[in-house]
Design brief:
Length: about 475
């Protein structure tokens, strides 16, 4: 059955527009064309930014109750069209239909949390009389929106990661211009549909589709853009940071996430959690489990059960509810993973299962004996490959876990509270999940990392804090006036 090819428009300052040129969006499973999308020009992006700035100035006193109403109505719209959103995510990206439905639910929750947090953008009073000579002064600070936010989003969560930028930006009273990943722009455009249906004031949201090199640079460098929120790779993040200039930057740049399994852990639980954390979304997940360090007494048991569960993963048609894992985002990425695994094998690694590619499909793969000099041990694989190592102690596991230029999240499995806190204090990461894999996250929590994993934190409340600034107000009272 031939898929109907969609012809999309992009949202520029509240209006759905075509562009002189277009680009094509393909289903990575079968390389079938599913949509044509406007290829925006620099002028399109300049218009979106200029109109966003104008809309922000016009809506500078946009009431909080109205922000809450609009964001909740957008969430209602997504909720009422859940299957359409899920099928869009699954068709343009790598997720199975089951995973896509889960992402839609998370995006709805992200918007709901954004609406709730809008009512909690508070300041506090300041005791100026703590300073000698300021006994006749009183005051406070409050938080105000900073203006136009520029957002650049990745392909792996094409709806929820857009919601994580749009929801907080609007909750804080800002305008936002989104440049979604070119391989998965359809979900972002659908989210824009929700906000238009919700009655968002014109110009406060634009979704500009096209080349990062063509329009992304304009978004990052434009002086009217007061903050850049970027989720993507380390190399791209470093380039953006150098180009952005004097403005706020929030970046989530991926990881090479470790999990530590101690000998007192529930091994079955640790394996089940780690298999899910390694291979959900085809491993194309910044929190995905990549390295596992198991104390030697439990290493063989852990490895054997891990391989057994990995072999049970059903890889195939994304639209089947029986499928656990679909294709990678494209064949090029699958070939990259294939080459990294081949390099590791040449350097002495052993393969226990997987290591096979069919087009854009790369089968779940388990490696051991990977030397720490191998690229796959140091970089973010962003694919369905996991490395398992035996270790002598928790101290050794923590040392190995920290020995990369990433630090997003880590997991540790243990029944010993002292050992858990030892790891919490010494793991150089933004989050430690105890008796969970590194892959655990809720949308309300602060989310981000250290080292090459990024700058700042996402998560709705922390994103709102980054997208607002405090303004101090001080009154000097004339005590002789009465």
């Amino acid at each position: 059955m031939q898929t109907q090819i969609r012809t999309e428009k992009m949202l520029v300052a509240g209006k759905w527009l075509d562009a002189e040129n277009t680009f094509e969006v393909y289903n990575p499973q079968d390389n079938q064309l599913i949509a044509t999308v406007p290829l925006a020009s620099k002028d399109d992006m300049l218009k979106a930014i200029d109109e966003a700035n104008r809309a922000f100035e016009s809506a500078r006193n946009w009431p909080v109750h109205d922000r809450i109403r609009v964001i909740n109505k957008a969430a209602d719209y997504v909720s009422e069209h859940q299957e359409q959103y899920a099928r869009t995510i699954a068709s343009e990206g790598s997720k199975t239909i089951t995973e896509a439905r889960g992402e839609v639910k998370r995006a709805i929750q992200t918007l709901r949390i954004s609406a709730e947090e809008a009512r909690r953008i508070n300041g506090e009073t300041i005791n100026f009389d703590q300073n000698e000579g300021s006994e006749n002064r009183v005051g406070y600070y409050y938080r105000f929106p900073i203006g136009v936010i520029g957002a650049i989003t990745p392909f792996n969560d094409p709806l929820n990661l857009v919601a994580h930028k749009v929801g907080p930006a609007l909750a804080a009273g800002n305008a936002i211009v989104v440049k979604p990943a070119s391989v998965t722009p359809l979900s972002a455009l659908l989210l824009a549909d929700a906000f238009i249906a919700a009655g968002l004031p014109e110009g406060l949201l634009s979704v500009v589709t096209g080349s990062g090199r063509e329009v992304g640079d304009v978004l990052v460098t434009h002086p009217a853009v007061k903050m850049v929120s970027f989720t993507g790779g380390l190399e791209a993040g470093e380039t953006i940071a150098h180009k952005a200039g004097l403005k706020k930057i929030n970046m989530e740049l991926g990881s090479n996430s470790p999990v530590i399994v101690l000998q007192d852990a529930d091994i079955q639980d640790a394996v089940q959690s780690s298999v899910s954390g390694a291979f959900s979304a085809v491993g194309q997940n910044c929190l995905g489990v990549q390295r596992i360090y198991v104390e030697k007494d439990k290493y063989e048991e852990f490895l054997n059960y891990f391989v057994k569960l990995t072999n049970n993963i059903q890889t195939g048609d994304k639209m089947s509810e029986l499928t656990d894992m679909g294709p990678m985002i494209n064949e090029k990425e699958a070939k990259r993973v294939e080459s990294w695994v081949s390099e590791a094998l040449l350097e002495g690694a052993n393969i226990h299962t997987g290591g096979r590619r069919e087009g854009a499909f790369y089968y779940p793969t388990v490696l051991t004996d990977v030397p720490d000099t191998a690229r796959i041990a140091k970089e973010e694989i962003f694919g369905p490959v996991v490395l398992i190592y035996p270790v002598n102690s928790l101290d050794e596991a923590v040392e190995f876990a920290n020995d990369v230029n990433y630090g997003l999240q880590a997991g540790i499995f243990t029944k010993n509270l002292d050992k858990a806190f030892y790891a919490i204090q010494r793991l150089n990461v933004g989050g430690v999940m105890v008796n969970d894999s590194s892959d655990y996250r809720i949308d309300a929590m602060p989310f981000g990392g250290v080292k090459g994993s990024g700058l700042g934190r996402e998560g709705v409340r922390t994103a709102i804090e980054a997208m607002t600034d405090p303004k101090v107000v001080n009154f000097r009272l004339n005590q002789n006036a009465i």
